[in-house]
Design a protein that fits this description.
Blueprint: H1 2-5, H2 10-22, H3 33-42, H4 46-57, H5 61-65, H6 76-87, H7 89-106, H8 123-146, E1 162-166, E2 183-187, H9 188-195, E3 199-201, E4 207-209, H10 211-214, H11 220-225, H12 244-253
Antiparallel strand pairs: 1-2, 3-4
InterPro entries: HNH_nuc (IPR003615)
Organism: Halomonas saccharevitans
Protein name: HNH endonuclease
Length: about 260
């Protein structure tokens, strides 16, 4: 019982937040392998870690927006960390990455993905892979919060159909990989079009569709879901609007004009 009552350290809270952002709402339970792994690393019970994760869920606007709720009882320090994540996601995400990387360096098997029998990562490769997965998960959470868990083009709100799309790719500009302003919340179709250079945002904040689609005489769903968007403004508040320098890079480097 004494182990259950020990105070959470700031380092442990960062690890819990890192794991929280990697899991879906339905995975926040004591039987989840990643929860068990973190509990063992912290010398806590899986129930204790699961409770901390669901405390974070009770503060998460993405969870609330989807009509769900976590477990009440988040501590003041939990609330302070979460508020920092909301107001300064880049800094907190970096801290979470560092915390996760530290324990991964100490134990490369820590929080590894369940084995699929297909690929084996070891040494530096597994540490790099874990850091990237943690960073991408934190980035997704920050993007979902920034855009109120809605596709910026259609307004669609469904967690399984929404993607946090990097405007400038992860590998291209490492310094911007955790910046929520370098992200767009898009549904799966428009995410694929954006990533493939078939959709972009111009310097006037207007949606642009690649000429190769516009010139095909598209009709039906393709016309409604893509071609008819050409020239429409991205309807976002100033505070939520993505970084225009990132959008300009994507328009210049990726868009099929």
């Amino acid at each position: 019982m004494a182990a259950e009552r020990k105070a959470w350290t700031d380092h442990e809270r960062l690890l819990a937040l890192s794991l929280y952002c990697r899991l879906t709402f339905g995975q926040l339970h004591s039987g989840r392998p990643e929860v068990v792994g973190l509990a063992e690393r912290l010398g806590r019970s899986a129930n204790s870690v699961a409770m901390k994760l669901t405390n974070y869920a009770s503060l998460d606007p993405e969870v609330l927006a989807l009509g769900k709720k976590g477990l009440p009882g988040a501590s003041q320090k939990d609330r302070v960390l979460w508020q920092r994540f909301i107001t300064d996601p880049e800094t907190v995400s970096s801290e979470c990455e560092q915390a996760w990387t530290l324990v991964s360096d100490e134990d490369p098997a820590f929080a590894a993905e369940p084995s699929s029998g297909e690929t084996d990562y070891s040494g530096q490769d597994v540490r790099r892979l874990q850091k990237q997965r943690v960073g991408q998960s934190l980035f997704r959470k920050a993007v979902m919060i920034r855009y109120d868990t809605r596709c910026v083009i259609t307004g669609l709100r469904h967690e399984d159909l929404l993607m946090a799309s990097h405007i400038v790719p992860w590998r291209t500009r490492p310094a911007s990989r955790l910046d929520p302003a370098n992200g767009l919340c898009l549904n799966a179709l428009h995410d694929r079009a954006f990533d493939g250079g078939l959709l972009a945002i111009d310097d006037q904040g207007r949606i642009r569709i690649a000429p190769e689609l516009m010139s095909t005489g598209a009709s039906g769903r393709l016309k409604r879901q893509l071609c008819d968007l050409d020239g429409q403004p991205l309807d976002l508040t100033v505070s939520a609007f993505p970084n225009r320098d990132y959008l300009a890079w994507h328009y210049r480097e990726c868009f099929r004009r």
